[in-house]
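Work Package 3 (structural annotation) set out to generate three-dimensional models for the target panel prioritized at the project kickoff. During this period the team completed the workflow that converts sequence records into discrete structure tokens, so that structures can be stored uniformly alongside our sequence database. As a representative example, we reproduce one entry of 443 residues exactly as it appears in the project archive.
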Amino acid sequence: MPRGKYWNEELETLPRGRLEELQLRQLKEELAHAYAGSPYYKRAWDAAGVSVGDIRELSDLERFPFINKLTQRETQGVGSFLGELAAVPEEDVVFISTSSGSTGVPTMSPFTKQDFDEFQDVESRWFWQAGMRPNDRYVHALNFSLYVGGPDVIGAQNLGALCVWGGTLPSERLLFVLKQYQPTCIWTSPSYAFYLGETALKTGIDPRKDLSINKIFVAGEMGGSIEATRKAIVDIWGAELFDFYGLSDIFGACAAQCEYHDGLHIAEDHILVETLDLKTDRALPPGERGELVYTTLRKKARPMIRFRTGDIGRFVPEKCPCGRTHGRIYVDGRKDDMFIVSAVNVYPSDIEYVIRSLPEVTNEYSVRIYESKFTTRYDVTVENAGLSGCGSDSRVSEIVTNALKARIGVRPSNVVVLPDGAMERSTHKAKRVIDERKVTYEI
């Protein structure tokens, strides 16, 4: 079918009232499906005294209990291979992905054929929103091994783009592909996008002049929406960068930036968004900052009802200048990554913003969180960029310390300065925060 600016104009530009009517209708159907098919939801909702009949408006969902990663782990494999959260038999499932396990035991995410096809249609929507067209050549440089983002290349194929299934090719081989095939689009992590650009320059390839990449899609880390990180990547590649956001618990890219790069549009025809107060767990009005909670509206294999993501951010339902009416999310970090120093909430994303905006250091850094005299402290390790005029390590340490104090409100206990190239470069998803604390701190 002929398409203009939108992949699905009617759906993407639905007036807010009609969009919420669609959500309410789908929510009732999803809850009925979950209750009928999932042993866990039936047991939990009966115990809580709630039922599908209680839903008369979207806010009535607040009566229902939450689930989280612990719920998934405790029910996974119980009663059946798919576990008690699943609402369909195994023979209806055609695909499973697995979480990274970065916050505990890896959890699987099952998809029926309908789930998977709709998942990829959303991916096509995001690619089209970012400007990908059938005449583009696309390199999918994401891990295919159990990762929910792996199949997203199908979304680009369904759109009509020529696709190269790159996966986790070694950097030298991937650069050969980029130079030989001259693709126009690539998707990887922010860390790897920067690393690959640096590697290209070191091998005599100028990404701006020698390659044809004009769009970079990034996901898996915070960097895509951090202005300093975005600028560092764009400066190397000379390409437009779009941040994508996904959860293995739901599907690949649940949300993505449009050309205005102001928040990430979330697929509200598939996901109902709530924001919780970090202290009271009460639902907050749109625009307020808290923990993001998602409810699937169409997923059959494993409905996720009031799933606490652990992501801290806000949801804005206002219409975007691009014309899309689906709301946008702004993610600041993860609840389990945030730490408190001298009563100040510190997010690793704020530290990244500072480091990536300082010309005196390279883009590599790490954060160490630890306890000293019953108090949480943090150290930062950076690399000296050797900038003329302030090349001494002590001066660089002073610059970084003052910049962090000005941005965050609390200075690090130590800033360790290493020479350029001393820190190991991440080839995909970077692990930059090392938490050595032995005490669990409530947020």
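The radius of gyration is 22 Å.
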